[in-house]
Amino acid sequence: MKQNTAVRSSRFAVTLLKAVGVTGIVVASIALPGFGFLAHKMYRAYEKEKWARMYRSLHHLNKRGLVKLTYLKDGKFRVELTKQGKTVVKKLDIEALTIPKPAIWDKKWRVVIFDVPNWKSKNRNAFTDRLKGLGFVMIQKSVWAYPYPCHDEIMIVRKFYDIEKCVTYIETAMVEDEHLWRQHFHL
Length: 187
Prior knowledge:
Layout: H1 2-23, E1 25-29, H2 36-42, H3 45-63, E2 67-71, E3 76-81, H4 83-96, E4 109-114, H5 121-134, E5 137-140, E6 143-146, H6 151-160, E7 167-172, H7 178-185
Antiparallel strand pairs: 1-3, 2-3, 4-6, 4-7, 5-6
C-alpha cells in the first residue's frame, strides 16, 4: 500500500510541476487569519489531505531544486520553476508527445535520417528511443520510417535533444520494398 501512495505522490508532484510550468508563477495562501472554527467546519478531512499533499509535493520539488518557494509577508507563498524545473517539464512534455493517426493513410512515407557525432551519443540514443516510442521503424542504422504526418513532432524532438543540424526529415511517395513497410504498419 505504501508503494501505491508513493507512486500517486510522485504522479501528483509531476502534475503539480507541469501546472507551475504552464502558469509560470503560482501564489498560494498558507495561512488565513481568522479562519479558525469556521474553516474547521467547512473543510472535510479529505480536502485537508489534498492541501497537505500539495504542500508536501511542493516542498519535495523545492528540495530537488525544481521549484523555488518564496514565502511572502501576507501568509502566502510564490512558486516558480527553476531552470532545472523547466528542463524537467520539457522532458515530461517530450515523453508525453504522440503523433495523431489519421483515419486514412495519405500513401506518403516519412523518413528520418540522422548522423549525430559521437560526442553527442547520449542525445542520439535518447532521440532513437523517442523515435521507437513514437512508433517509427528502423530501416537502416540511423534511418527510420513512419507512414503518418509527423513533421512538427520530429522538429520538436530534434530541437529538444539539441541535434537539429544532424537530423533530416523527408516525405516521399515511393520507396523500394514498400510492401515490407506496409506489412510492418498493417497498411
